[in-house]
Write a sequence for this structure.
């Protein structure tokens, strides 16, 4: 590896250094703020050296990793999002009785590194390594709030799911390798261009697609998503929905671009079907959900469906749409889960039921305003980044003449409006409003009342800063998206 | 810069009202009133500067324009421009903003600062709709008004407010997304024909639209605007939204938001797709006539006073749809006139219903009646507004409906004849408003105060506007004429010829 290779890898190396420093610091001095600070500073430092790394890209560093503009862009996204998760996590854990909070940040750093490796991988081996680094850290993170049984349950579910996914992915890779005899993405593309893609390779690709479907929680591989999001601590659920999926989307995009000319019909039809089903099923399930975290989980299924609409459109402008949507979705989803994580009830439980947000506008106006902005962004309403993202995706879909997918996306968005606005409507109700008869059960009412007492406690500075940053990003990128669009355009240009 | 100010004054005023209201509750009203008055002053001053715009063939189309880069990668610019049509609608917008703030003076007691912020946010958004000459920007403003209107209804509305608000949002958002797809498809045609992306109105006018695709794209635009207008059968969101909204919300909805639909048809749907629209005109005009009759008939059956007024809007806006698709000078002048006059007359009626509701806490026609003896001033005002609504000569609505019918007559005699029937129904429902509320025996022993000085002044201003429109419509017609000429003129297809000439 040349010196340039080290320069190109510097963002990753800085993050790895932070991940190594954190346990040492913790063993010397166990303080929650110190551990969180290490993670935040490490991730920000990793982001800060990206311009430095950008001077030598694109460069192939070992056969495993390619550092190009796109990889650096995803590094930036993953590191910044993870830093925000660390801030939210600090606020979340600070208000909970839990022994040994500090290790969460080591896991967070490792997971971020895994996602970054995924984005830079150009070989099956690094693909798999990145995915495993990400997943293994996440098992522990999902189950981190050990006092909550749901958290443990979610951790185990995620463990089983991810293990099965890895197995399927490996099998798919093995089939492809058996047929084509190569494992690097570029060699793979070259082999396929020469017409080497036989039935065995197709089976392999479809198996890999299944694994990706599991990771992105696309229908019909979505059944785990609600339980895991519900059980995971809110900031971790945000991480799962954004950084973890972002890394997988990045590597999928890379893989798809490399085999642009291949695009076997079965493969494309499979993706399109998954997109269609995800939009329809995700939105319908979200519509039926009284639990906020589960609702967001199903809505994330639908959003990944929207993302696939752009992914299917192929070509640089579609890849730009995918990347921008990823940014928009990450900002928005982190904000929403951040707000949920900031609403503590007695015993450290989260305010999960939508009904528990009753009157939030009048009790906690700032949190309610952030939540409303996030929901508006998820619904794709102007002044928010979600609008620009939805516009980009629809634009890609229209340019590719995928009318069925575009139509489904519109219907899905309209259904989405109903359940997003339902949350806003609940937040707008008077806190003292007696619930209409049959509206909610007595249990939910007393829950809301109990919530009313504790929701009033103030948000710790760390998650307050995190939420303020996310809200600002959400609005600023909703009105002035141009700088990010330009960055994405150059980044995506390196893929083609 | 005037164009930016027109949008910025209400928005910044709204934020200022909110902030001021945090320190002193009452300050919010004054700041909101001052900023909407400032907006109105600027709009009127602009009208004074440009009483008549340049006709086609003679130079520049726009009175004022602004073109700044926004998202150059996608050919999206921050393009604003003003012609006579936009100008008149902006004068209406600012005027109605003042009316809405004044009408809410004593009605809104809870969370007044937030209310004024939301109200002025809607006003800024609507001003943006009337000024945007980039289709992305237009859509941006179009959708940006949804959330504040939703909040207006959901926070300060009546009993069924949450249901009505969500219904409004879902309907308009669904139609809006269909329109967005149409905008994208049109932009894609531009990209294919010219080779660079653009969402600019002027560029898209020059796109050569293939007949088959053009029809579908046009239909998307039509749907977006017809739901907002609303034309039967897309009107079902309207009665609930109007009835459940607070007074200012109903006024804004009726006087302004519905007009964005009519404006969109005039500005975009027809000029962008002249051929497809001409083919579609019989259907659209039939829908317009159906709206006129249906709205009037259903209004007759209402027992809720506010719902009755809401349905009259469907009838009035039917004239807009009819006139737009007649697409000749008389009809279009009538449409512009109708949009302004309906804004004043129906806006006024909603204010009146609101004032009445504040006093008696019912809108049930069975419980009202005979109020003339109790509140004579209110009854007199209601009578004049009802007369305006039925199209009495001397008031604005008469001129408007007359022009629309004249224009329609040139295109289709049967449709004009049936639409004229609507005027007969209008007499019945308008008289019903006056009769059932203020005449006849007193149903209950109401002892309520009559209009106070503020309320009376407000109503007099509205009525004066209607009389002015009815007796001296020329200033308005002059301002609108050049803009309408431009819209009807064959579009300069320079770009399409330059590039598409070979193929």
């Amino acid at each position: 590896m040349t010196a340039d290779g080290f320069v190109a890898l510097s963002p990753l190396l800085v993050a790895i250094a932070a991940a190594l420093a954190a346990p040492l610091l913790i063993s010397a001095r166990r303080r929650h703020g110190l551990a969180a600070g290490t993670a935040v500073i490490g991730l920000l430092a990793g982001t800060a050296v990206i311009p430095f790394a950008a001077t030598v890209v694109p460069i192939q560093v070992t056969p495993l990793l390619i550092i190009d503009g796109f990889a650096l862009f995803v590094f930036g996204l993953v590191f910044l999002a993870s830093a925000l998760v660390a801030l939210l996590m600090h606020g979340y854990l600070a208000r909970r009785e839990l022994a040994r909070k500090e290790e969460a940040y080591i896991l967070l750093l490792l997971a971020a590194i895994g996602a970054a490796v995924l984005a830079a991988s150009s070989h099956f081996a690094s693909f798999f390594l990145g995915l495993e680094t990400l997943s293994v850290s996440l098992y522990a993170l999902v189950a981190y709030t050990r006092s909550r049984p749901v958290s443990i349950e979610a951790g185990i579910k995620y463990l089983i799911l991810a293990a099965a996914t890895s197995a399927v992915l490996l099998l798919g890779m093995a089939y492809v390798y058996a047929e084509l005899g190569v494992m690097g993405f570029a060699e793979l593309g070259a082999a396929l261009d020469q017409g080497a893609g036989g039935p065995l390779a197709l089976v392999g690709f479809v198996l890999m697609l299944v694994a990706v479907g599991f990771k992105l929680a696309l229908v019909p591989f979505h059944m785990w998503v609600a339980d895991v999001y519900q059980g995971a601590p809110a900031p971790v659920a945000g991480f799962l929905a954004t950084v973890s999926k972002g890394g997988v989307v990045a590597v999928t995009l890379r893989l798809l671009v490399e085999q642009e000319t291949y695009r076997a019909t079965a493969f494309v039809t499979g993706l399109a079907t998954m997109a269609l089903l995800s939009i329809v099923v995700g939105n319908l399930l979200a519509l039926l959900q009284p639990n906020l975290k589960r609702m967001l989980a199903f809505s994330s299924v639908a959003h990944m469906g929207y993302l696939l609409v752009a992914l299917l459109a192929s070509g640089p402008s579609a890849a730009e749409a995918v990347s921008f949507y990823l940014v928009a979705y990450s900002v928005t989803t982190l904000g929403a889960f951040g707000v949920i994580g900031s609403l503590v009830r007695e015993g450290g439980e989260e305010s999960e039921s939508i009904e528990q947000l009753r009157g939030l506008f009048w009790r906690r106006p700032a949190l309610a305003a952030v939540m409303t902005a996030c929901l508006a962004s998820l619904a794709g309403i102007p002044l928010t980044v979600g609008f620009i993202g939805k516009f980009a995706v629809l634009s890609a879909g229209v340019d590719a003449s995928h009318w069925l997918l575009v139509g489904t996306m519109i219907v899905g968005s309209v259904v989405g409006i109903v359940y997003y606005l339902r949350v806003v409507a609940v937040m707008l109700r008077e806190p003292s409003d007696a619930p209409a008869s049959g509206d909610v059960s007595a249990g939910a009412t007393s829950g809301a009342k109990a919530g009313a007492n504790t929701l009033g406690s103030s948000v710790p500075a760390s998650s307050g800063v995190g939420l303020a940053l996310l809200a600002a990003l959400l609005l600023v990128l909703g009105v002035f998206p141009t700088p990010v669009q330009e960055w994405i355009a150059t980044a995506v240009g390196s893929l083609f | 810069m005037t164009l930016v100010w027109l949008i910025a004054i209400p928005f910044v005023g709204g934020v200022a009202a909110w902030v001021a209201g945090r320190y002193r509750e009452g300050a919010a009203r004054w700041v909101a009133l001052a900023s909407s008055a400032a907006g109105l002053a600027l709009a009127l001053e602009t009208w004074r500067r440009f009483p008549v715009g340049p006709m086609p063939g003679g130079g520049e189309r726009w009175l004022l324009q602004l073109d700044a880069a926004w998202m150059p990668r996608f050919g999206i610019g921050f393009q604003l421009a003003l012609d006579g049509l936009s100008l008149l609608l902006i004068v209406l917008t600012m005027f109605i903003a003042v009316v809405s703030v004044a009408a809410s003076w004593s009605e809104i007691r809870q969370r007044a600062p937030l209310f004024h912020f939301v109200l002025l946010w809607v006003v800024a958004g609507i001003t943006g709709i009337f000024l945007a000459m980039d289709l992305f920007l237009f859509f941006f403003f179009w959708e940006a008004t949804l959330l504040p209107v939703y909040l207006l209804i959901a926070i300060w509305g009546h009993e069924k407010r949450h249901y009505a608000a969500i219904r409004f949002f879902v309907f308009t958002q669904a139609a809006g997304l269909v329109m967005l797809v149409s905008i994208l498809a049109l932009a894609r045609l531009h990209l294919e024909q010219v080779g660079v992306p653009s969402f600019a109105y002027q560029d898209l006018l020059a796109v050569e639209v293939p007949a088959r695709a053009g029809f579908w794209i046009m239909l998307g635009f039509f749907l977006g605007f017809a739901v907002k207008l609303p034309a039967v059968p897309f009107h079902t969101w309207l009665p609930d939204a109007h009835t459940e909204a607070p007074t200012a919300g109903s006024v804004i909805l009726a006087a302004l938001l519905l007009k964005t639909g009519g404006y969109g048809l005039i500005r975009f749907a027809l000029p962008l797709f002249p051929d497809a629209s001409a083919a579609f005109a019989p259907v659209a005009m039939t829908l317009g006539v159906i709206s006129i009759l249906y709205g009037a008939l259903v209004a007759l059956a209402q027992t809720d006073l506010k719902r009755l007024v809401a349905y009259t809007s469907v009838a009035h806006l039917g004239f807009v749809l009819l006139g737009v698709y007649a697409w000749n000078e008389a009809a279009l002048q009538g449409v512009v006139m109708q949009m302004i006059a309906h804004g004043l007359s129906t806006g006024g009626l909603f204010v009146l219903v609101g004032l009445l509701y504040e006093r008696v806490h019912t809108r049930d026609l069975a419980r009202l009646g005979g109020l003339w003896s109790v509140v004579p001033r209110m009854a007199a005002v209601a009578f004049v507004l009802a007369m305006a609504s039925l199209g009495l000569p001397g008031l604005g609505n008469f001129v408007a409906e007359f022009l629309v019918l004249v224009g329609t007559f040139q295109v289709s005699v049967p449709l004009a004849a049936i639409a004229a029937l609507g005027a007969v129904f209008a007499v019945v429902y308008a008289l019903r408003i006056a009769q059932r509320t203020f005449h006849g025996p007193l149903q209950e022993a109401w002892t309520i105060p009559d209009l106070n000085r503020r309320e009376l002044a407000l109503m007099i201003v509205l009525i004066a506007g209607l009389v002015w429109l009815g007796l001296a419509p020329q200033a308005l017609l002059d301002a609108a004429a050049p803009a309408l000429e431009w819209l009807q003129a064959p579009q300069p297809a320079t770009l399409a010829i330059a590039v598409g000439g070979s193929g």
Remarks:
- The two ends of chain A are 25 Å apart (CA to CA).
- Residues 434-456 of chain A have pLDDT under 50 and may be disordered.
- Residues 325 and 480 of chain A are 15 Å apart (CA to CA).
- Residues 3-493 of chain A form one domain.
